[in-house]
Every structure is written in structure tokens, then in C-alpha cells.
Amino acid sequence: MDAVADYHTKFFECLFEKDEAKKAEKTKDLNEKHTPLILGKLNDMVAGKFLYGDSPTWVDLGAYLVFNDVAKDDNIQKTYGKFCGVLKEVENLPNIKAWIEKR
Fold first, then answer.
1. Band of pLDDT at residue 27, cut at 50, 70 and 90
2. pTM of the predicted structure, to 2 decimals
């Protein structure tokens, strides 16, 4: 979960940076360095339908919340297919699916 939290922190640093030049630099760093690194590690961790086997854990839920929008990119899906599959599994859990439809 630390990798997910680290990415989340970097994302918000980009989002809330007021200096446009620094924001562009941080966003480039996030997209070119951190996103491939974190997604690569998560993709390698997949051990079944979910990150740690065939039952969801809070880590799968946290990863879904942080990476769901990123994972909609076609290149991300092709490169990190196992991890994107985990996100789809989370999205299709009955209670998660109902929550998505209501929000």
C-alpha cells in the first residue's frame, strides 16, 4: 500500500502546485518516472484476481481509488494488463459497482 500512497502524494503535489513551471516539471516527473515505476511494481505483484490472491483486500480498494482514471489509458492497459485486470475486478464487486452507479 505504500507504493499507492506514494503515488497519491506525488499526484496531489502536482495538482496543488501553484507555480506553473514547477507544476509542469512535477507532472512530467510523475508521468515519466513514477507512474511507470509504481504501475510496473503493482503489475508484478498481481497474484490472482487481485493483488494478493483471489480475494479483495483494502489494498485493492485503495489502488482502485488512486489508479482507476490512470488505467483508462490504452497504453497503460496494454503495458500493465494484469494490474488493470485487478482494477476491473474491484470495479465489478457488487457493493463497489452499486456505489459507482449511485455517485
1. very high
2. 0.86
